[in-house]
Structure of Fe2OG dioxygenase domain-containing protein:
Amino acid sequence: MAEITSTQPKLNVPPVENITSSQHSADLFSASNDNIPTVDYSLLFSDNPVQRFLALENLRQACQEYGFFYLVNHTIPDEVLDSTLKGFSDFFDPKTIDERRVFGKSGPSDKIRWDLNSSAGENREYLKVIAHPQFHAPSNPSGIRKILEEYHKEMRNIVAGLGRSVSTTLGFEEDYIEKEFNLKSGFDVMAMNLYPPNSRSKGEVGIPEHTDPGFVVTLVQDVDGGLQILSHQGKWINVYIPHHAILIQLGDHLEVLTNGKYKSHIHRVIVNKNKVPRISVVTLHGPQLAKFISPGVEFVDEEHPQSYHGMTYKESLEANGGDEIDVQSSLDKIRFL
Ligand SMILES: O=C(O)CCC(=O)C(=O)O
Ligand SMILES: [Fe+2]
């Protein structure tokens, strides 16, 4: 396997060395390089009221008009991001694949789950762990558990901050999201994904089209390559995450709570141009499992009739027959037809 290390250059433009010259099937999965908004985390908490107001307005627009954005100037040290990605590059060593099979599906209450899909519909190896309210992680290779726990702790701080800022952009007190979702007791699942290079995949799809449940999804990656998001306007957009930035995607349950004002977005991973493997670390930050989530009364009026059923987060995760750790979207069951 071509080695990916955290020192590999990250590009904010299409990674030329990661794209083959063949343009086959380019049309089926082609996407535009349209702009994705950038939100400056530090300015959301600026002491300067004008700066803070402008940053919050930028966040509001990103949430309402896009539903996804790059988060820069956040509080996670670069070394924590780098060691997490390097840790999973080691974890996914092809020579140790048999050791990973112990985490294969054993039952609906798995706290750690590994799988390998190599088919026309999906090409990815992944490890999922339930990271909150209790933290679970493999203990090999040595150090991986500590690295992951540190990463998750740092990311939860950011998500708590986003909860406060998003509440403000919606016109509420800062603790609105925390109260509605009980994020302090929230159900977080991390998915570490390894996508093969095109030469070793069975098709072009890394992960098929889907949305993700929860408040927000945070994503970091080692190299650009293949993540595409469908915009409100029905246009596929390529994601090129700036070095050490975090991609934030709004989750289904923010859409439910806001009665469709802040929507989650369909996304997919296409591996047809990847010359090297790619790793992403994706965390679905969810409400507390027992929390009943329905559209807030403030978002429902004659012009905006209630468009979603209420259900507990746990019920919504199980509505499509999946296990909790699958964290499958069930928006199709929650949204009124
Ligand atoms: O790996 C990616 O870029 C996206 C993965 C994803 O959408 C997911 O794990 O839910
Ligand atoms: Fe996803």
User: Anything to note?
Assistant: The domain at 16-334 is CATH 2.60.120.330 (Jelly Rolls).
